[in-house]
């Protein structure tokens, strides 16, 4: 499918970042530099399949108006990265932008760390010419995805890894000059541990990232990777670095408790961090497809037909909660995308007398409160047979996102996904964009899910009760406009 045709696909997003066509995955190199927010990303400029990784590039002065830039980094034929310029991050220092990335080569099992420097605001890069960290530490079976940050007068780096003893790990390096790096050991390592929905933290961690908060706490973010099945889910650990800077025990020097899901949906992976000039931690992640692929990253006839795959989440603000959780909110700048208000309703609904609230666009910002037993149904076909359900379960208080009927195309993946209870009344913000829903709770939890409506006609919002008792609700809905 040509680029103009791909962009006319009814599932193609209007406000989520992605190029007009072809494959996209991990966000990379998130940095504020030279007056702009820069969002690089894993990109195949030649097809909608996971291969031939380059770094694509968007930039913005305000997180609202985005400019698609030329490809920033490409594999060098015959070079250390001839198999692909894989994931990493970037730092701004002394007027230049330095990108750190995983150099993939078909002759190596691991991905060494290397770098490239930009002197023109992040548009073009000059590669270092040799590997920064050519070998993986002894005892590793996976090694990739550097994350570099400033700490005092020096620099630190985490690299995602799998250890021979079956643990996932974030390994630490330090440097005084961004060019010479010393291995310090394990920052955090844990065996597979269960998280909700039957998933676990797996044997390998990709895209390990670290956020240090003003209260002295921190959070390690990672993407759980299974050696057989590949990408699974995004996870995090909240805690503190142990005093003294020494590495105490085989679990590393980051002291933490149990892991937690970063996003409770099925289609969120590879979160990456940006420390904004105003002190906020911003986060983007990869939203993958949920079409007919056998597993994440596998070939898909439907995706080949569409000519594009993947998008980035909208930017999220990340703050520490009082109970060790991470609180996620849509970046405050996104309020500027709201256009016409389509719905402003408050009332009571019942199973016998559902309430139709009216039409919404395919890119919509909803704020919703649901009493236990209330269901919001997004109808996407005129006859009502295609719909996405968001339910505040009466018995458990869980919030359910049910996409089993969200596409009349039988190739689309279904499933029911849960958010933990919020109380008797749940308040949600739901950002819809053609084929994706990003859902945020008042407590700061998030759930991201793809769905693929094929019904003709406008989308409509209907409120229902799931049991014999009526249920109250409030709903507001605004059009969202890409700029």
If you had to describe this structure to a student in words, what would you say it looks like?
The chain has 483 residues and is mainly β. The chain folds into 2 domains: 22-330, Tachylectin-2, Chain A, CATH 2.115.10.20; 338-480, Sandwich (Jelly Rolls), CATH 2.60.120. Helix content is 2%, strand content 51%. The chain is built from 2 helices and 35 strands. The protein has helices at 3-7, 301-306; strands at 22-33, 36-44, 54-60, 66-68, 84-93, 96-104, 113-118, 126-127, 140-151, 154-163, 168-175, 182-190, 204-212, 218-226, 230-241, 254-256, 260-261, 269-275, 281-287, 308-309, 311-312, 316-320, 326-330, 338-349, 355-360, 363-371, 374-379, 387-392, 399-402, 416-419, 425-433, 436-441, 446-450, 459-465, 471-480. The strands form 7 sheets. The protein has a 6-stranded antiparallel sheet, with no helix packed on it. The radius of gyration is 22 Å and the shape is globular. Its EC number is 3.2.1.26. Belongs to the glycosyl hydrolase 32 family. GO terms for molecular function: beta-fructofuranosidase activity. Keywords: Glycosidase, Hydrolase. Residues 16-330 form the Glycosyl hydrolase family 32 N-terminal domain.
Give a topology summary.
Layout: H1 3-7, E1 22-33, E2 36-44, E3 54-60, E4 66-68, E5 84-93, E6 96-104, E7 113-118, E8 126-127, E9 140-151, E10 154-163, E11 168-175, E12 182-190, E13 204-212, E14 218-226, E15 230-241, E16 254-256, E17 260-261, E18 269-275, E19 281-287, H2 301-306, E20 308-309, E21 311-312, E22 316-320, E23 326-330, E24 338-349, E25 355-360, E26 363-371, E27 374-379, E28 387-392, E29 399-402, E30 416-419, E31 425-433, E32 436-441, E33 446-450, E34 459-465, E35 471-480
Parallel strand pairs: 1-20
Antiparallel strand pairs: 1-2, 2-3, 3-4, 5-6, 6-7, 7-8, 9-10, 10-11, 11-12, 13-14, 14-15, 15-16, 15-17, 18-19, 19-21, 19-22, 22-23, 24-35, 25-34, 26-31, 26-35, 27-28, 27-34, 28-29, 29-30, 31-32, 32-33
InterPro entries: ConA-like_dom_sf, GH32_Enzymes, Glyco_hydro_32, Glyco_hydro_32_AS, Glyco_hydro_32_C, Glyco_hydro_32_N, Glyco_hydro_beta-prop_sf
GO biological process, one term: carbohydrate metabolic process
Domain Glycosyl hydrolase family 32 N-terminal: 16-330
